[in-house]
Amino acid sequence: MTDETARRFIRVKTGLARSDLFMAMSGVMMMGKTELSDDIPTACTDGRNEWYGRQCIDESTDKEVGFYVAHENFHKACRHMIIYQQLWEVDAQLISFATDYWINGTLVKLDPNEILIAMPRKNGERMGLYDERFYDEDEKCWMSVPQIFRILLAEKKKKGKCRQGEGEGEGQGKGKGGNGSSPNGGAGQPGGKSGHPDLLDKHDWEGAAKLTKEEQKELATEVGQAIRQGVYAAKKAGLGTGGLAIELDEMVTPKVNWKDQLKQFINASCNDKDISSWRRPNRRFLHDDIIMPTLEGETIKELVVAVDASGSMYFDNEFTKAMSEVKGMATTLKVDKVHLLYWDGEVDTPHEVYDSSTFANVMVETEPVGGGGTTPAVCPGTVCPGAPV
User: Fold this and answer.
1) What is the C-alpha to C-alpha distance for residues 309 and 162, in angstroms, rounded to an integer?
2) Cα separation, 305 vs 341, whole angstroms
3) Distance separating alpha carbons of residues 60 and 127, to the nearest angstrom
4) Using alpha carbons only, how large is the chain's radius of gyration in Å?
5) Which of 109, 146, 163, 376 is the one with CA 20 to 30 A from 92?
């Protein structure tokens, strides 16, 4: 992209990513490829990549271009093309409507005075789907995509338009309802080659449906990393999540408490187990000619702990929290020796070794090395010299 249209588009997208309002989305905006096309009326995404119509960009104001960019990247951040595949199979058209109602409503509420972005207009009227009835006044947020979908589906059934096998445009089943299967198949603006006249963009549901389970997992990982990068940049700039109406960091925050899971694993698998055994009689009762079993303990003698020491761990005191859990874990296990190592983009050496007496002062004596990127894959298979294999 080197022509004037492309340069203008890059300027708008870069400015959006650097803005206070959308900095938390910057990682997602940089994910995948972005192209301008003469074959697309407005915009399109497959969940990773973005396509924008060259003529649409030329005819739109900078704020409208910003709205298109934010719209596509909300599809990407929320992984709409992946997580709503089942609803797409029920009604391809209505799930596209539901995702667009949610995104457009969220963006309008996010910048109500249109300071940075503005919903595209044609002849003074908003293009795309927007309806205040999907805003929950009690919760002060928009209904979820599935909630909106269920409302639209109920209304469609009530109108008697939910029979299988109806003509193109009714949106029943996969690939119908004007959603197409590629970014070059038309899009949803008035007068588009295909698609519903109220859709702001095109959704490549069929392209996403062709992804294997492994490819979907890789995409989820890629999106998660992009969100973390953006949220971290926004927090470092003192912006929280950039003022977004949705908490992007919640999308990649584990719902399971890792501390509780770690403690359960220790108690169930590694802690000292009192097991009765008749292999050795209990000598305390032998003088009374009573044979009783002895209690045998199964516990690990040495423990290897790899602590994340990447740059993000030094934000919000996360590193200290992790080290506190390590100390508690070793104390609970009553291990003889602890091998402590740190990693970021690689496993840093040399590793530290503590025994039951010195580990009490680990928080003072340890010298963590790291501060770089985060690559968990470097840990599996790592063996510390002198540590149990």
Assistant:
1) 55
2) 6
3) 12
4) 28
5) 109
Q: What is the pLDDT of residues 148-180, one digit of tens each?
A: 999 999 999 888 744 443 433 334 444 333 333
User: How would you classify residue 316: left for phi > 0, otherwise alpha for psi between -120 and 50, otherwise beta?
Assistant: left
Q: What is the pLDDT of residues 24-58, one digit of tens each?
A: 889 999 999 999 999 999 999 999 999 999 999 99
Amino acid identity, residue 340?
Answer: L
Backbone angles phi, psi at 308, to 5 degrees: -65, 120
pLDDT band for 185, please (50, 70, 90 cuts): very low
Write the CB contacts of 226 (distance below 8 Å, at least 6 apart in sequence). 27, 28, 30, 31, 77
For residue 199, the Cα-to-chain-centroid distance in whole angstroms is 25
Which tokens sit at 298?
A: 């199964």
Q: What CA dihedral angle connects 109, 115, 119 and 124, to 10 degrees? A: 120
Segments of the chain assigned E as strands: 34-37, 43-45, 50-53, 121-122, 125-126, 135-136, 141-142, 202-203, 273-281, 293-298, 302-308, 337-343, 347-355
- Are the C-beta atoms of 241 and 249 separated by less than 8 Å? yes
> How do 337-343 and 302-308 pair as beta strands?
parallel
- Global confidence as pTM: 0.59
Separation CA 65–CA 56 (nearest Å): 8
Helix ranges (DSSP H) in 183-281? 205-209, 213-236, 248-251, 258-265
Q: Please identify which residue in the block is written with the tokens 């003192």.
A: 238
The answer to whether 41 and 25 are in contact (CB under 8 A) is: no
Domain ranges of the chain: 4-251, 258-378
CB 340 within 8 A of CB 305: yes
Place of tokens 């970021």: 344
Please state, in angstroms and rounded to a whole number, the distance separating the CA atoms of residues 154 and 156.
5
Give the strands of the sheet with 34-37, arranged side by side.
34-37, 50-53, 43-45, 202-203
Question: What integer pLDDT is reported at residue 239 of this predicted model?
Answer: 72
Kindly state the tokens that stand for 194: 């295909």
Mean pLDDT of the chain: 77
Q: Which CATH number fits domain 258-378: 3.40.630, 2.60.40, 3.40.50, 2.50.20?
A: 3.40.50
CA distance linking residue 172 with residue 29, whole number of Å: 32
